[in-house]
Write a structure and sequence with these properties.
It is built from 17 helices and 20 strands. The chain has 448 residues and is α/β, with parallel strands linked by helices. It folds into 3 domains: 92 residues, NAD(P)-binding Rossmann-like Domain (Rossmann fold), CATH 3.40.50.720; 210 residues, Mur-like, catalytic domain (UDP-N-acetylmuramoyl-L-alanine:D-glutamate ligase); 133 residues, Mur ligase, C-terminal domain (Protein-Tyrosine Phosphatase, Chain A, Alpha-Beta Complex), CATH 3.90.190.20. The strands form 3 sheets. The chain has a 9-stranded mixed beta sheet with strand order 7-8-6-9-10-11-12-13-14, with helices on one face. It has a 6-stranded mixed beta sheet with strand order 15-16-20-17-18-19, sandwiched between helices. A 5-stranded parallel beta sheet has the order 3-2-1-4-5. It is globular, with a radius of gyration of 22 Å. The relative contact order is 0.09.
Length: 448
């Protein structure tokens, strides 16, 4: 089977195991290596396919002889094994780049610092309801490579992170969506926003005049990045502050989406399933994709009205003694927490904290002053949160478990308030993942 060459896959999660499956199907000699421990679900799958793998180490003799390496987005380019591969001149690519070679489906690729999961799910929901044969992959759902190996979709909605884009070279998005660019993951980009922005702009690489690029005309950093990288594709901006000729805009309470002259979709924002300013942007982006694909207005309207958002993203957990509990554990950066606070209409007891990725809390100051009555820190090191907000709120408390944080927040809140878990940080100091953090919070709320 080694006729095709040797593919080594670094990282045995959803994307790695999916890539292994596709590489084996295409006749490569495949080896999987994970520096951490491999979840049982994935090791069982590799055993079933008789694909050799290792965990807890990277054995260089088994890796450096690869024809090509597919790496997990979580492994930084500064990792020793990646540096050694670069020295040897072995190409290192992402799962998306690899799988893209083996499908002719139309690619709808969505990136941005915030809102990409919601927008990807909403876009997928609209396309599926319209009867298109569509798959959902990337940073969300099942592995893209595994779907390419086993399914025959005509369209894919792919949620793409900057880490994935860094390892994508020849892949092309037929429809690319850039929602926004705000400081996130700067530790991977030498703490320079322009490096991160350049990475996001790779979403339009290889596009031609026959492709489509959709972006937010109100996002300062996107506009700046567009001065450095000019799209060849047909562009459709969306805005809530000004009218645009082709694209989407908000006029009072009505969204207008038009990709063709005389064929406009209008919809009142009160009809949208997703509420809050940031979700108007997400809905506009999805709506433009749907109009580009010439779906019926009726279908688009209906889908935008009955969509159910994802778990851990502004998810209403319960109302107890007149206090609303909201799980926004997926808010792993400051901008996500800004969006969450921006959509609150009551006084808030905010639970935040965790692993700080070099956060700048200044952008939250105004919202914290106007809406937050107390902050409950949930993390091992909360000094930067205290320093940032000690002048803005009367109470800042440290806690070290979801249960403790929830109980204290409940005591600090009164009838009519909202307890909001929106951490602005990664979860790895106390939890396995943001999902684990959200689930522990929900369990603690149910115990109140």
């Amino acid at each position: 089977m080694a006729g095709q060459g040797r593919v080594v896959i670094l990282g045995a999660g959803e994307s790695g195991v999916g890539a292994a499956k596709l590489a084996q199907l295409k006749g490569f000699d495949v080896f999987v290596s994970d520096f951490g421990t491999i979840a049982e679900k994935y090791s069982t799958e590799l055993e079933k396919m008789s694909i050799p793998f290792e965990s807890g180490k990277h054995t260089e003799d088994l890796i450096l002889n690869a024809t090509e390496v597919i790496k997990s987005p979580g492994i930084p380019s500064s990792a020793p094994i990646i540096k050694n591969l670069a020295t040897k001149g072995v190409p290192v690519i992402s799962e998306i780049e690899f799988a893209g070679r083996y499908t002719n489906a139309r690619m709808i690729c969505i990136t941005g610092s915030n809102g990409k999961s919601t927008t990807s799910l909403l876009t997928y929901h609209i396309l599926k309801k319209a009867g298109l044969n569509v798959g959902l992959a990337g940073n969300i759902g099942h592995s893209f490579a595994a779907q390419v190996a086993t399914e025959h979709f005509d369209y894919y909605v792919l949620e793409i992170s900057s880490f994935m884009l860094d390892d994508m070279f020849k892949f092309k998005a037929d429809i690319a969506v850039l929602l926004n660019i705000t400081p996130d993951h700067l530790d991977r980009y030498d703490y320079k926003l322009e490096n991160y922005a350049a990475s996001k702009m790779r979403i339009i690489q290889n596009q031609t005049a026959n492709d489509v690029f959709i972006y937010c005309a109100d996002d300062e950093e996107s506009i700046k990045a567009l001065q450095q990288t000019v799209p060849l594709a047909k562009t459709y901006p969306f805005s809530i502050v000004k009218q645009v000729e082709a694209g989407a805009f908000l006029d009072d309470q009505t969204i207008h989406i038009n990709t063709e002259p005389n064929n406009s979709l209008t919809m009142s924002i009160s009809e949208l399933a997703l509420q809050g300013k940031h979700n108007i942007y997400n809905s506009m982006a999805s709506g433009i994709v749907a109009k580009v694909l010439e779906l019926r207005n009726e279908t688009i309207r209906e889908s935008m009205g009955d969509f159910k958002n994802i778990e851990h993203r502004l998810e209403h957990v319960a109302k107890i003694s007149g206090i609303d509990f909201i799980n926004d554990s997926k808010a792993t950066n400051v901008n996500s927490t800004w969006y969450a606070l921006e959509s609150m209409t009551t006084d808030v007891v905010l639970i935040m904290g965790g692993v700080d990725k070099g956060n700048d809390y200044n952008m939250l100051k105004d919202l914290v002053q106007s809406k937050v009555k107390a902050i409950v820190c949930l993390g091992k090191n909360n000094k930067r949160i205290h320093d940032a907000f000690e002048d803005d709120v009367d109470v800042i408390v440290n806690t070290f478990s979801a249960e403790e944080a929830t109980q204290i927040a409940f005591h600090l809140a009164k009838r009519g308030d909202t307890v909001l878990l929106s951490p602005a940080c990664a979860s790895f100091d106390l939890f396995k993942s943001y999902e684990d953090r959200g689930n522990q919070f929900k369990a603690a709320v149910k115990e109140l």
